[in-house]
Amino acid sequence: MPKIMYIDPVGPKGACPKLKNDLDRIKQKNTEVEFTCLKKGPEHLEYRYYEALILPELLDTIRDLETKEYDAAIIGCFYDPGLYEAREILNRMVVTAPAEASLHIAATLGRKFSILVGRLKWVPQMMENIMKYGLKDKLASFKSLEMGALDFHMDENITLSKMKEKALEAIELDGAEVIILGCTMNFGFYEKLQDQLKVPVIDPAIAALKYAELLVEIRDKLGWYTSKKYAFETPPDLR
Amino acid sequence: MPKIMYIDPVGPKGACPKLKNDLDRIKQKNTEVEFTCLKKGPEHLEYRYYEALILPELLDTIRDLETKEYDAAIIGCFYDPGLYEAREILNRMVVTAPAEASLHIAATLGRKFSILVGRLKWVPQMMENIMKYGLKDKLASFKSLEMGALDFHMDENITLSKMKEKALEAIELDGAEVIILGCTMNFGFYEKLQDQLKVPVIDPAIAALKYAELLVEIRDKLGWYTSKKYAFETPPDLR
Amino acid sequence: MPKIMYIDPVGPKGACPKLKNDLDRIKQKNTEVEFTCLKKGPEHLEYRYYEALILPELLDTIRDLETKEYDAAIIGCFYDPGLYEAREILNRMVVTAPAEASLHIAATLGRKFSILVGRLKWVPQMMENIMKYGLKDKLASFKSLEMGALDFHMDENITLSKMKEKALEAIELDGAEVIILGCTMNFGFYEKLQDQLKVPVIDPAIAALKYAELLVEIRDKLGWYTSKKYAFETPPDLR
Amino acid sequence: MPKIMYIDPVGPKGACPKLKNDLDRIKQKNTEVEFTCLKKGPEHLEYRYYEALILPELLDTIRDLETKEYDAAIIGCFYDPGLYEAREILNRMVVTAPAEASLHIAATLGRKFSILVGRLKWVPQMMENIMKYGLKDKLASFKSLEMGALDFHMDENITLSKMKEKALEAIELDGAEVIILGCTMNFGFYEKLQDQLKVPVIDPAIAALKYAELLVEIRDKLGWYTSKKYAFETPPDLR
Amino acid sequence: MPKIMYIDPVGPKGACPKLKNDLDRIKQKNTEVEFTCLKKGPEHLEYRYYEALILPELLDTIRDLETKEYDAAIIGCFYDPGLYEAREILNRMVVTAPAEASLHIAATLGRKFSILVGRLKWVPQMMENIMKYGLKDKLASFKSLEMGALDFHMDENITLSKMKEKALEAIELDGAEVIILGCTMNFGFYEKLQDQLKVPVIDPAIAALKYAELLVEIRDKLGWYTSKKYAFETPPDLR
Amino acid sequence: MPKIMYIDPVGPKGACPKLKNDLDRIKQKNTEVEFTCLKKGPEHLEYRYYEALILPELLDTIRDLETKEYDAAIIGCFYDPGLYEAREILNRMVVTAPAEASLHIAATLGRKFSILVGRLKWVPQMMENIMKYGLKDKLASFKSLEMGALDFHMDENITLSKMKEKALEAIELDGAEVIILGCTMNFGFYEKLQDQLKVPVIDPAIAALKYAELLVEIRDKLGWYTSKKYAFETPPDLR
Predict the structure, then answer these.
(1) pLDDT per residue over A73-128, tens digit each?
(2) Residues of chain A with pLDDT > 70: what percent?
């Protein structure tokens, strides 16, 4: 019975516990999903600086979860902050994050995907991740909704209609075959959008949970776990 | 209860039904795995020509499985023959193949992977696939065992020792952090090799099954299924 | 006196024997061009599945031509179906195809080319070929006419005017210096278009014939023929 | 009179104040160089986790320097930790780091450079930076000395001789024309190595200082300063 | 006291000595800047042929400057004609050019830059240089003003307003964070444009001077000078 | 009857008129091949500087040939000096060069090629050309014979044996399927080498002639000639 913690890597004011409802609805029967956020921290992570600030507490939280025998942690932000750092310090627990999981799933469902972002400010850092994950050739485009991370649920109809407009541009003009929602705060939209667009629309928090379940399973059944050679070698004092 | 067919895309003489044992051992509890091969065809697919010959029967078989309400088919060859063709003609059934599944899993477990191939002849076509899947930047190297697809189980100790030698070269000289076995006929080796190398060693047939289970699950729970826009648009007469 | 067979890789209903007129008009004096199509097969190859279906008969036809001492075969479809498979099984006869030939010629005539396709559905597979041929950096863009392969000659004035419109976009907005017509069914248009656009417009069937004549000549005079090392190694039973 | 702070982003135990001697020796006449380290932190940053731990204090230190009207800060580690984060939060002060500065200088002095690293563990993260800076095509190779960051000055003759051996391999076998020392703890070696190899050998701490002086100068004379559009947009509360 | 010659690589009729005013205004205190042009040559270098014609005199001029103990020469054209040839024949003198210097500086100030060119004709050759310098991944776009090299100062208000329009397109649509003026004849515009756009605008002649000062300084203080291995090996008779 | 001039772009002392014998032996029946060299110039072009020196006379020669109604000129050096400049100024005459022609032919005969160079010094500039021609992905490796351009015929047995050794390395270790001789002074070797290696060995001067014949033919029959848009736009005074 895999125990998975979804970490909303922001302070209590920005955290969004109702996101857990979506995860509970789509988890595997035996999976147990919990939700947590940080003790302190900004309300969102739209800036690199904000991410830098939360990294130590985030990584402590993750180490602590390994001690408590959790099977996996999900870092709930589409910038995947601390994902590689966490893989470095962990020795048994799985860790996933929305962008990595969404990109791999999308790459299997179509030849090209586009990513809806809140603001163009997000693009450079997300592009760095896509290059890091080696999937640049699958990217059709980024499309900006021109909304901040905290704005998506102010008027959901407006958000949905903007998402649809930008997704259609991505499909018609950029050749996208799959749409990825580029923020975990986009929860609650993928189904409606998918119905209207007739192409897969990836909700990144859900993708991260599905990938976490897969990684836990292949760890347990096959011994396939983060390689400890080179990139994710654990510091000596944490082995 | 997902019903998944593993297709060994060769004629009865080359088919290897005992590979099913490995799959049964690692499948999810509810999954049902069956095994089939083609009615006629060569004993192996080391040449593009051989693959061309089996494509029509392979695709007929796959269409037939969709009619019979299978949830997924696995095309059991590391060249992934017919994978994109199959995605084009299917409207509900999932189809996976060893290379695509192995590459995505390996890309998550480490930064660079190497692929052990039987002969250097295999490299150009596999490289085409890696470029098609958009994962070229994650490839550390190909390493050739200089054995044909039918030779791996003649003397398993020799095979294992060659695999170890080439995998170590890949790790030490090319920076590989994960090893992918580049042929479904490499079944039975990953565990021993993994124990000795201390890095993940991906068995491609198993990877394909795990990916099939994931894709069936996200299809059923989330409606995430092969995009029918552009690359995998179904011909009108098959819709 | 080189004997070259142009194979229209579709069934008799879709085949277009009058395309031979264009080839006869521009062939070298000593070249003899013949035309054939498949005994059965779809009317066009716009889907990967259709190509898979015709591959075995196509490759048999090609092997047969080698036996009959033809000097070259042209596979008359811009997807170049079976080109690499054919190179694998042949030991003396040359084989060319429209996309490969057009891309190399266009790459010499200008720095960037654009390809006019019938539908956006065609783009992913053509892009795979361009990457396989190593010429991705020379591509300015694909432009879609939004017409099927069988529609180009319904109203040739409409087709020509759409071609001109899209070619101009490619030149003015994407920096194209050469235009490639992305379907062998585009025969009969290149000259008029070229006159109007003042840039080279490549007819792919013609390009394939010119490349075939070149390859036959360098084979005969210089012994430069498909390398049989690695990618195009012939299966043992066909050597 | 530019005032520049060199930050050794480790705790007092790992910090190396005598590195300042080298910087004083090669600074511009008017430049004033100071040295500081963090109040707490690990002795070296060979692991991503260690970098994550020091980021908040490092960025606070940097913000504080801007308040105190320093002209530039140098982040003294070849992983360039926090460089982009710092650029985001700063509005006037320049910030440079060893890898970025060394790569740009080396790219001007030769066509290809190689980087000497302490251990292969360092390669993945440095490669991410090289891709981020857009200079991947200039990299000939990484060469590993198989020494930790704290080992270089244990026996300097051994270090020098290993550096020479690996640099020669890079030049003779990989085509390197410039050698970059891949750790700020490699101070004190570049001159001797350069004399022996007859190619430029870049000391990264020095390169960072020279780049800092350049960036301060073009800021003051030309108004050329970090673009605040997109990648380095400052969070609203820090503007 | 570095002595630097700015060479306007055109004949006297096309040369623009007042460009020196800008350089004098922004040079380091101790730097001495002189200006020269060629004895004969075309008025501009918009064509590859024109550049070929001036190369011998340009390189003779540069060799002569080395003999006269100049510290650096600047080749004043954004195509950087003869830059690598000059580096080959020089043994002590520094040589820089506008494109190389601008690209490196822009790459440090933002993640993506766009280049304003006079005509689309200029793009292919500039793209070759960007690939040669290894900075292709940092390019957002080229934007064409549709003006010749000699037109920029005919009506400076028109030029400025076109520059602004195209720069805004580059920023808003292509994600540019830094603008590079793609012709040395664009002198006099960067400041106004920068004030209006609020992103760095690089004047290429000035960038070349700043880079020349840097390269002279690191040559003198650190012995970091053009590598004479491979790419810039000097012909035996010129050593 | 195509009239083609082979230009040996060196002075009379370095020119090698007997190379014409090879060309006469393999030309098309109607082709007339002539040979010329420059009035003055160095004996070889191993340095960029030497190439710069000969460019004006080379381009004058080429313009003169167009006036005299030659059909094509071949620039007989594997650096392809002046090829793009010549295409710019010509309005009717074809111009080809050894590297461009060899790369396109080799790319058709196999998936990867290696180039034998005289010295490692040659690699950077040849690599620039390969990137310019867009064929980088087809390159397996450069292999250096460590001989100057004038040394190949001193002891032809030694040269042949070195070529064989390096070509075998390229095939066995780097995956090359085709070998390109990287200097026009390598004439006389391809046949013997080809017999021994059993893979195609491209003689670059011959490749350039074959490509010239092709380009003349498609110009005359199809109007396919160098695009005059953008890259090869002719200067106004030469139109």
Answers:
(1) 999 999 999 999 999 999 999 999 999 999 999 999 999 999 999 999 999 999 99
(2) 100
| CA–centroid distance for C136 within its chain | 17
Is the same domain home to C103 and C195?
yes
Mean pLDDT of B106-119: 98
Statement to judge: residues E140 and E72 lie in one domain:
no
Query: What's the pLDDT tens digit per position in D98-153?
Result: 999 999 999 999 999 999 999 999 999 999 999 999 999 999 999 999 999 999 99
The model's pTM is 0.98
**Within chain B, where are the H helices?**
19-26, 48-67, 83-89, 98-109, 123-132, 156-174, 190-197, 204-222
What is the least distance, in Å, from the CA of C46 to any CA of chain B? 8
CATH value at residue E154: 3.40.50.12500
- Give per-residue pLDDT as tens, D204-213: 999 999 999 9
pLDDT bucket at F151, cuts 50 / 70 / 90:
very high
Q: Does residue D167 contact residue D194 with C-beta atoms inside 8 Å?
A: no
Reported as a single tens digit per residue, the pLDDT across B195-217 is 999 999 999 999 999 999 999 99
Verify that A63 and A149 share a domain, yes or no.
no
Asked whether B220 and B94 are in contact (CB, 8 A), the reply is no
Which helix (H) or strand (E) covers residue A70, if one does? Answer: none
Q: Is D48 on the interface with A (CB under 8 A)?
A: yes
Question: Is A92 in the same domain as A16?
Answer: yes
- HSE-CB at E5 with a 13 A cutoff on CA atoms is 22
Check whether residue F105 and residue F181 sit in a common domain. Answer: yes
Would you give the DSSP letter of residue B198?
S
Pure H helices in A110-231: 123-132, 156-174, 190-197, 204-222
- Are A198 and A132 found together in one domain? yes
As beta bridge partners, residue A202 has A180
Out of E200, E215, E224, closest to residue D202 by CB? E224
**Domain total of chain A:** 2
> Does residue F109 sit in the same domain as residue F87?
no
The predicted model gives D27-38 an average pLDDT of 97
Residue with tokens 């050894």: F98
- Within 8 A of E61 by CB-CB distance, chain F residues are none
Helix, strand, coil shares, percent, chain C, to 5: 50, 15, 35
pLDDT value for B197: 98
Asked if residue B120 belongs to a domain, the reply is yes
Based on the domain organization, do E60 and E147 belong to the same domain?
Answer: no
Q: CA-nearest residue of chain A to B26? A: A221
Rounded Cα gap, residues C82 and C61, in angstroms:
11
Cβ–Cβ contact D120 with B under 8 A: yes
Chain E touched by C175 (CB under 8 Å): yes
In-domain check, residue B54 = yes
Q: What is the CATH number of the domain that holds D87?
A: 3.40.50.1860
* DSSP character at residue F105: H
Q: Give the pLDDT means over successive 10-residue stretches in chain E (239 positions).
A: 96 95 96 97 97 98 98 98 98 98 98 98 98 97 97 98 98 98 97 98 98 98 98 94
Whether F contacts A, i.e. 3 or more CB pairs less than 8 A apart, is no
B239 part of a folded domain:
no
List the single residue in E with minimal CA-CA distance to C138: E124
Question: Other C-beta atoms within 10 Å of D141: how many?
Answer: 17
Range of the domain at A29: 3-97+205-233
Compute the Cα dihedral for C158, C164, C165, C170 and give only its sign: positive
In this complex, do E134 and D133 lie within 8 Å of one another by their Cβ atoms?
no
pLDDT of residue F201: 98
Distance between terminal CA atoms of chain F?
25
CA E64, CA A72: separation in Å to the nearest integer?
69
Contact D/E (≥3 CB pairs under 8 Å): yes
